[in-house]
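Mods, move this if it's the wrong board.
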Amino acid sequence: MATRKRKLYLGPQIRRLRRERGLTQARMAGELGVSPSYVNLVERGQRPVSADLLVRLAQVYGLDLSAFSEDRADDVFAGLNEAFADPLFQNAGITREDAHELAAGNPVLGEAVAALYRAYQAARGELLEAGAAGRAGPGDPVEEARTFLHASRNYFPPLEEAGEAFAREADHSAGGLFAALARRFEEKHRLRVRVLPGAVMAGAWRRLNRHSGEVLISESLDQASRAFHLALQLALIEQSASLDRLVNEAKFESDAGRRLARAALANYAAAAIMMPYEAFRKSAIELAYDVEALGRRFSASFEQVAHRLTTLQRPGAEGVPFFFLRVDAAGNVSKRYSADVFPFARYGGSCPLWNLHETFKTPRRTLTQIVQLPDGSRYFSIARTVQSGAGGFDAPHAERAVALGCAIADAGKLVYAKGLDLDAVTPAPIGVTCRLCERPDCAARAHPPLRRRLIIDEHRRLATPFSFAFD
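Not the wrong board. Structure tokens:
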């Protein structure tokens, strides 16, 4: 039995052709040898285009008939069908028949809708890639600052050189780092360092009082934090020009982004003073990157050492490339650095299957884990809780967890992997974040993946929270 040909309703194309050539309906009708009313009905979609009219259109206007073929309508339908299958239109009630009618009845509009959807997909893809690579978007000063650090691989030679210069000049033998810093303030800047009760500091941890010639530090801080804040204040005074030059050489879309980047550099400079590059790198190798042992050697906290380990990127004298993440108990990410090793997401929390989140159940205990991303890449990580805030029974504080990790190829250099058969351990299957992870069998999933179509079946309940298609 012969297949019935579908009638061609090409009103939008005929109308566009006529308008592009500056013709009235009467003029076009005359050139085609038909009545003006027929052209009007065709353009309004109330009459199909006959084969004779198609031939005349091709002869009079030099057209390629393939522009009016059914294959073109099929292509438009395919684009519309893909667009309307997106979860974005889940509640719109659009059917395949609706897409067919639009493709056949108004292919110009159909092509426009399909093109708009492709542009949306491209923009969404760029956003996902930006999230994985850590690139900043307009109007986000925090991401601007993070992108600035990432672009420099979290390594800034002028600040490292200043830190090592201080180490050469300072006398640590009498009272340690804090005393050496206090002497530096007094001898070079005529500023006296005083440690005052928290009540006197009125909630501040550090304050520079130029009028009285004092640098004030809260006694509520532990020894590592006192030294860090004093080193930070010294960096702000002695390295101000370097900090300005580094941020002014970069391009920031907002003043807030530039200021945040400058503050991050000042913190970097303080860490370089506390843990001078070469001495710290050699100790890290000697101690097999034992964070707690390094903290005791350099009078620094677990978080300070972990963060400092991500900066060992001096050409020819690199350390293990580490990535670093800090989260709170709710999973909010407050600090991260990827070292071009781990593809952190720009927005959203981390994977709940990462044992980073388990550390809150065992405070101050270091956990290790081998993890694997959906692309097969494996990483070794350690995680532990850290506490920030002033000391005291009823003083406010924040409990967070930090993770420090590296590619599995470098794990053998870490004391934490000693005795482990890294190839025999089954890695934990994690994702970057739920929105970007497409693992179909994850019971811990909090959100469906952005790039997949949800499948809603009221009569079937799986162990996973969401079902989605891979077509």
